[in-house]
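Exercise: predict the structure of this protein bound to adenosine-5'-triphosphate.
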Amino acid sequence: MLKAVASTCLQSRFHVATTSFNPHLRRSTESNSPLLRVLGSVYRPNCSNSRSPYFFRRFFCSDSSEGSDPVAESGAEAKRIEREGEDADSKSSAAIVPTVFKPEDCLTVLALPLLHRPLFPGFYMPIYVKDPKLLAALVESRKRQAPFAGAFLVKEEPGTDSRIVSGSDAEKNIYELKGKELLDRLHDVGTLAQITSIQGDQVVLIGHRRIRISELVDEDPLTVTIDHLKEKPYDRDDDIMKATSFEVISTLKEVLKTSSLWRDHVQTYTQHIGDFNYPRLADFGAAISGANKFQCQEVIEELDVYKRLKLSLELLKKELEISKIQEAIAKAIEEKISGEQRRYLLNEQLKAIKKELGLETDDKTALSAKFRERLESKKEKCPPHVLQVIEEELTKLQLLEASSSEFNVTRNYLDWLTALPWGIYSDENFDVLRAEKILDEDHYGLTDVKERILEFIAVGKLRGTSQGKIICLSGPPGVGKTSIGRSIARALSRKFYRFSVGGLSDVAEIKGHRRTYIGAMPGKMVQCLKNVETANPLVLIDEIDKLGRGHAGDPASAMLELLDPEQNANFLDHYLDVPIDLSKVLFVCTANVVDTIPSPLLDRMEIISIAGYITDEKMHIARDYLEKSTREACGIKPEEVEVTDAALLSLIENYCREAGVRNLQKQIEKIYRKIALQLVRRRAQNNPPVTEAQNGEPIQLNAESHCVLTETSTGEGTRDGGESKPDEIENSLDQATTSEVTLESENIKSNDIETVDKVLVDMNNLTDFVGKPVFHAERIYDQTPVGVVMGLAWTAMGGSTLYIETTLVEQAEGKGALHVTGQLGDVMKESSQIAHTLARAILLEKDPANPFFANTRLHLHVPSGATPKDGPSAGCTMITSLLSLATNKPVRKDLAMTGEVTLTGKILPIGGVKEKTIAARRGEVKTIIFPSANRRDFDELAANVKEGLEVHFVDDYNQIYNLAFSDNEKTKE
Ligand SMILES: Nc1ncnc2c1ncn2[C@@H]1O[C@H](COP(=O)(O)OP(=O)(O)OP(=O)(O)O)[C@@H](O)[C@H]1O
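Solution:
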């Protein structure tokens, strides 16, 4: 395994080694690593073509007969090797005249100890000669034109294991040995090596033929006589030999396949596959294998060619295994590296994308480019003063340090500045008919509101442009103020943006913070423009009546600057610090009461009040709008449900009596949710075990179910399995309260039946869906008793009826007084005082002998004591109540009144005529008394609101007195 890893490492460095000679690599060529050893063998110092196939040609192309010596066969080539070596070191050493040399003449040679590996014939090997004497002798022998030496592998030091690399100084030790001692440490069989070059202590050898030491000649340097060895004779056509050699070749190929290092060489080899000789093939195989030095020595010593081939094959097979492991290791490492590389690449891409998007905080150029690009489309329409600011800020951005806080401030500022829709307007649609259609589509009734919107559109059409206006929709909750705002935007094809200012007390919310603050933001209006991307949206400002008092500045004044058409053409947001033109924005405000809207604001608004809906209107809204939208939201089909008129009416009158329809919407949603559950349950129960009907009798379910199962299929045959029983079906429809299921055809197959479940909501089961009606104390008395009169009040929630009750506490001679309760406000308390005084005066006038008020202590109470009440409009009701008690006459049945009264008995106008009228209708009042000044308000009411009401308009209290008590001859006993 260690070998495989080392091999992988070296292979990856191969290209470096072959293109430029690396001194470190040179040093390590005698290492134990096989590839390096082989590398060493092909290395030719100072020769640019170090990977020349020359060596292989010599090796495999020889046509020499068995046992022939490649050097002897090719003396010319040997000369060339020598010449190349000489050329190489000609600069450093004296030129050597090449001569033809016969190795067989070489019988006495210097013995070179090889520490790491034997030298194979035909292979190069650089070695380092540390013994100066030996080196000098080698140089000398070259000069004597006998550049040969014997290369012998050093034997293992006794008691050591060559496989363990311990960093021992074996090399040093071997050069310390001399003569016989050294000879004993050398293997007998070695290689006749030609010295091709000597550079310093580096000697490059090329192996020629096998030799054996016969005698010691000289001790220092070690010189020996040698015998030239020849391979044993072999049969070149022997099948076994052939087969073995082919196996060596194919193994070699396999090994080389996995090793790119040797791929070129194997090509050279295969080109000459027919010309090899067996001994050389065996040597080649062993030489390139990763075998250790002793295994290699075994191959060197083997003179039987077949045995040598077998040995070589063994070593190659081992090498193949190592190659496979090497490949696996390489692959694993490659995968790891490629994974890391992938991550690196992705990171780089991410950086590039961030840069492109300008998200890279430190990339100023990208940021500037982003801002400029954003501005490009708006440049022509953008006001020059804004362009100038943007340019200045862009220049500033370039100068700032990316990590500084000011850089971030500038960047955010530019982000806002460039994101606003400078001069971009959506095309307005002034088509009145289309607008009318849209308004009608979305809302029932609200005729005056719609009319006003259409007027606005018409003016816009004639002028060609619509001036920014402030419309204020006021009315109780749930009357559709917000939703009509949305419809107006749709009708005008303007973008819609809504924000609520209820409870808003910080001016910065409207006008933005100064840029210098940390986390500074522009105001709501700038946020709106960025959001809608047009400069003429419809902005709905909700709950303007609930604008906060303000702890930092006055929000009302800020709103004024925002809304006032005179000022908002140059609205200045603190954050943006450049004037914005808001004159094209259409502002629609909503409020529950107009009284609390700051008067400068109110003054600039066009108030459109939505009073609330009467039962009839609610019926329409519920049927045509709320039911429809809720049904769709619940995924229920129209044919699956039926809510009867009576049920709807009951829902409106007994559950949702308030002015708006939000509660009605909630109740309808509640009903539909329950219906959805019933339908789903029923399907789940009906579907798998289908109720059987085999006997052909019509099944009548008259239990509590409200479900109507309608046959829509007339399949034939009988239902599978079992007989139908009416009570079984009843059980399956346990949620229902009445039902009728009629299976008309005999023998109906269950699979062919498609039943449509229909849930019926009527008066009988309404409580199952919405519970018991909420108790409403609106009509406490059927016939009002003496001292009790019904008044009409107006609240933010709409109009309502209220009773004024007066009772006698005690008779106290000359100590007539009035005590009031019912959480009355100051105005109402004063009203009661006025009423007491005036009632006394009227009684005195009508019945001078009656000292009732002078001698009686009275208590006046307004029920719903928990609800605070105020306002002057109950004045006339209070007088009537007091006079009723004083005269002991109940007022006329089904009468309600409202009106402020002065001390002289004059009746002053009141507000909320529509709301009060609607409330009176809800309270089943037949006769209403209003101040004369309110006649116009009443006349303007829709016919359906006024329908069936007897209304009297009065200027003076006497008129009320006559109306209230005229019909009642009957006095209380
Ligand atoms: N005339 C109408 N026709 C159809 N739907 C209506 C009508 N009036 C109100 N609605 C519906 O009643 C619901 C409540 O309306 P919306 O939220 O607009 O009330 P609001 O007046 O803005 O209430 P608040 O003052 O509480 O904000 C909406 O779903 C709206 O569509």
